[in-house]
Automatic annotation (TrEMBL), chain A:
Keyword Ribosomal protein: no
Pathway involvement of the protein, from the record: Alkaloid degradation; nicotine degradation
Superkingdom of origin: Bacteria
Protein name as it appears in the record: (2Fe-2S)-binding protein
GO terms assigned for molecular function: 2 iron, 2 sulfur cluster binding; metal ion binding; oxidoreductase activity
Cross-referenced PANTHER family: OXIDOREDUCTASE WITH IRON-SULFUR SUBUNIT
All residue ranges annotated as the 2Fe-2S ferredoxin-type domain in the record: 1-77
CDD domains, alphabetized: fer2
UniProt KW Nucleotide-binding keyword: no
A matching Pfam family: Fer2_2
Keywords assigned by UniProt, alphabetized: 2Fe-2S, Iron, Iron-sulfur, Metal-binding, Oxidoreductase
Automatic annotation (TrEMBL), chain B:
SUPFAM superfamilies associated with the record: CO dehydrogenase flavoprotein C-terminal domain-like, FAD-binding/transporter-associated domain-like
Span of domain FAD-binding PCMH-type: 1-178
Keywords: FAD, Flavoprotein, Oxidoreductase
GO molecular function, one term: oxidoreductase activity
One Pfam family in the UniProt entry: FAD_binding_5
Name of the featured protein: Carbon-monoxide dehydrogenase medium subunit
């Protein structure tokens, strides 16, 4: 099936089988391997991307469902000059990753929440509820929560 | 695993969707949120021949109130109900108490309430609420439109009264009157687990006496249950220190038919049901007092 995905503002005309999920098409056809696949069951959150601005599991969405829609992956977080997103700088500053496998998913779920409501970092309960959707198996969640709080407050990242 | 091969169509109107669903010689499935369907297809427990993606049909995302009922279209996502203001009055509060128990935000961004009713998982929060409130499921099919009340809808685990070729277009839930108190409590092993027991309750109290009670149970039988025996034990009774605990016991012994699960045998589950029904009724009674 012919579809068009706009990924990180770039238009990708693609020919895909209906059975292929968005995550596989992003990785294999668009060559954007920043989106990771962990459980492929919708549980771990490593594959989280934004579709039309909302954080979704790209392992539980077909690429054909996204025809004509806009997708943002971790590669699309950087600024126009290639500078890291404030959340990415905060993850680095707070040591919110070790192996880094889960990081793209955490960044995208946080980026989606932050775009919807820039004040989310002010409420620890909401930050805690936000990261409940994703699994990290090495760093632990405290530095990730700190990074989201830090990345959501403009000017707080050195 | 990856899903097995299937054909895919994305109709723009309900009649187009019904034409695609009329292909009853093959396994044809409706794709709405897809958060259960695609998982089952990944596990290859389901291998449909054709998926009918209804996400591009205008109007199915409608959420409207009329005639004392709220009508939730087939494309209204779980996340809408995270806010107690999405639906007026105590029903909005009840739905917002239940919504955070459904998976987590990225799943709630795609999954739909009507999809949950179509899937009919015995542990589903929405199905328990539909049973408690006797929601009305609206369908369109080859023989026209029809409505099925929740009491006739759930036939067993993942089994409903849906006929081949039919599409669920919406569900109607009664708005609960002001002064009705609501509660929703669920117990699970971990944040990611399905409910071992989930309880939805709505209580109307006048002068310290229960005048109406509705209780829905999730994962307390092979299908969602309306705890009618417990409701009868409540109506007309004066609220006292032991009433809710007694009603919980009635729900566990008479209404529920729990199945043994790993980490939860029948005795344990009856105990959990009795405790949680009592607790949910107390939560609802607090709301009724305010």
């Amino acid at each position: 099936m012919k579809i068009t995905l706009t990924v990180n503002d770039e238009v990708h005309p693609l020919e895909v089988e209906p059975r292929r999920v968005l995550a596989d098409v992003l990785r294999e056809d668009c060559r954007l391997t920043g989106t990771h696949l962990g459980c492929e069951h919708g549980v771990c959150g490593a594959c989280t991307v934004l579709v039309d601005g909302r954080a979704v599991r790209s392992c539980l969405m077909l690429a054909v469902q996204c025809d004509g829609r806009s997708v943002r992956t971790v590669e699309g977080l950087r600024g126009p000059g290639g500078e890291p997103h404030p959340l990415q700088r905060a993850f680095s500053a707070e040591h919110a990753l070790q192996c880094g496998f889960c990081t793209p998913g955490f960044l995208m779920v946080a980026a989606g929440a932050l775009a919807a409501d820039p004040t989310i970092g002010e409420d620890p309960d909401r930050v805690r509820a936000l990261v409940e959707s994703n699994i990290c198996r090495c760093t632990g969640y405290e530095p990730i929560r700190r990074a989201i709080v830090r990345g959501s407050c403009p000017g707080s990242v050195a | 695993m990856k899903p097995a091969r299937f054909e895919y169509t994305a109709p723009r109107t309900v009649p187009e969707a019904l034409a695609a669903l009329a292909d009853t010689g093959r396994d044809v499935r409706v794709l709405a949120g897809g958060q259960s369907l695609l998982l089952e297809m990944r596990l290859q427990r389901l291998r449909p021949d054709l998926l009918v993606d209804i996400n591009r049909i205008a109007g199915l995302d409608r959420l409207g109130v009329d005639d004392g009922m709220v009508e939730v279209g087939a494309l209204v996502r779980h996340e809408v109900f995270d806010s107690p203001w999405a639906v007026p009055g105590p029903l909005g509060t009840l739905l917002s108490l239940a919504a955070p128990n459904i998976a987590h935000p990225p799943i709630r961004a795609l999954g739909t309430m009507v999809g949950s009713l179509a899937w009919a998982h015995p542990a589903s929060e929405w199905c328990a609420i539909a049973a408690a409130l006797d929601a009305v499921i609206r369908l369109r099919g080859p023989e026209g439109a029809r409505e099925v009340p929740a009491r006739d809808w759930f036939r067993g685990p993942f089994e409903t009264a849906r006929r081949p070729g039919e599409l669920l277009t919406s569900v109607r839930l009664p708005l609960l009157g002001e002064g009705t108190g609501v509660g929703f409590i669920e117990h699970r092993r971990t944040h990611f687990s399905f409910a071992q027991v989930g309880v939805a309750a709505a209580l109307t109290v006048r002068d310290g006496v229960v005048v109406e009670a509705r209780i829905g149970l999730a994962n307390c039988a092979d299908r969602p249950v309306r705890a009618r025996a417990a409701e009868q034990a409540l109506v007309g009774a004066e609220i006292g220190s032991t009433l809710f605990a007694r009603a919980g016991r009635v729900a566990a012994d008479q209404d529920a038919a729990p199945l043994a699960e790993p980490y939860a045998d029948v005795e344990y589950r009856r105990h959990a049901i009795a405790v949680l029904v009592g607790r949910t009724l107390r939560q609802a009674a607090e709301g009724a007092r305010q």
